[in-house]
Design goal:
Elements (H helix, E strand, L loop, with lengths): L2 H15 L7 H11 L7 H6 L1 H5 L2 E9 L4 E4 L1 H12 L2 E15 L2 E12 L5 E13 L2 E8 L2 H7 L5 E4 L2 E4 L13
Helix pairs in contact: 1-2
C-alpha cells in the first residue's frame, strides 16, 4: 500500500477520534500526497521529486512564513524558496504526526522536522504546524507556525477541540503511526 494511502487511512481514524465531521477527504488525501516525499531522508530524492510535487499546488500558490515575515508566491517561487531552504541541510525529513480537517477548505498538518545542518552537522528536531488551504483541488496556500497555540488560533480552535457536546484540550503532537496493511 503506498504511503499516501497509509497516511490517509490513519488521518481518517484520527479525525474520527477527534469527532470531526464533514471531512473533505479529497483535501486530506492531497495533503498526504504532498507530504509523502518529505518523509524521505534522501535530500537528492526530495529535490528530484519537487517538480512533480509542485503539480499538486495551484498556479497562484503562496507560502506564508510568519516568523520570517515573508510570503513567496507562485509555483516557481515556492519551489525555489523550498530548494534554497533545503540547501541548509545535509539530511531532512518531515514526519506527519497529525492531520486535522478544519473546514473551509483548510487542513492543519502537524509534523516533526528532522534534519542535519549542512555546515554544522548538528541534528535539528522541531515540531511545526502547517495550515494548508485548497482551491480547485490544489494547494493554494501554506502557512507555517512553530507555536502550537498560534496554529490552533489560526484554525479557530484556541486550544480546544469541540466534540459534540464535549470539549477537550487539543493534543496535536500525537505520534503518527501508520496502520498496518491488511
Amino acid at each position: 500500500m503506498p504511503a499516501a494511502e497509509l497516511v490517509s487511512a490513519h488521518v481518517e481514524s484520527l479525525l474520527e477520534d477527534e469527532c470531526v465531521r464533514g471531512i473533505s477527504q479529497e483535501n486530506v488525501e492531497l495533503a498526504a500526497r504532498w507530504y509523502e516525499p518529505w518523509a524521505t531522508t534522501s535530500k537528492a530524492k526530495l529535490l528530484a521529486g519537487m517538480p512533480r510535487a509542485m503539480e499538486l499546488c495551484h498556479p497562484e500558490v503562496e507560502w506564508s512564513q510568519r516568523e520570517e515575515g515573508r510570503t513567496v508566491r507562485g509555483r516557481e517561487g515556492v519551489r525555489e524558496a523550498l530548494e534554497r531552504w533545503l540547501d541548509s541541510f545535509d539530511e531532512y525529513r518531515f514526519e506527519v504526526l497529525r492531520v486535522l480537517d478544519c473546514g473551509f477548505d483548510e487542513v492543519l498538518v502537524v509534523g516533526l522536522e528532522v534534519g542535519r545542518g549542512a555546515i554544522s552537522g548538528a541534528e535539528v528536531r522541531s515540531h511545526t504546524y502547517e495550515l494548508l488551504t485548497f482551491r480547485d483541488g490544489k494547494i493554494v496556500r501554506f502557512r507555517d507556525f512553530h507555536d502550537e497555540r498560534d496554529a490552533l488560533e489560526a484554525v479557530g480552535l484556541r486550544g480546544d477541540v469541540a466534540c459534540g457536546t464535549e470539549t477537550r484540550r487539543a493534543s496535536l503532537r500525537t505520534p503518527f503511526v501508520p496502520p498496518t496493511p491488511s
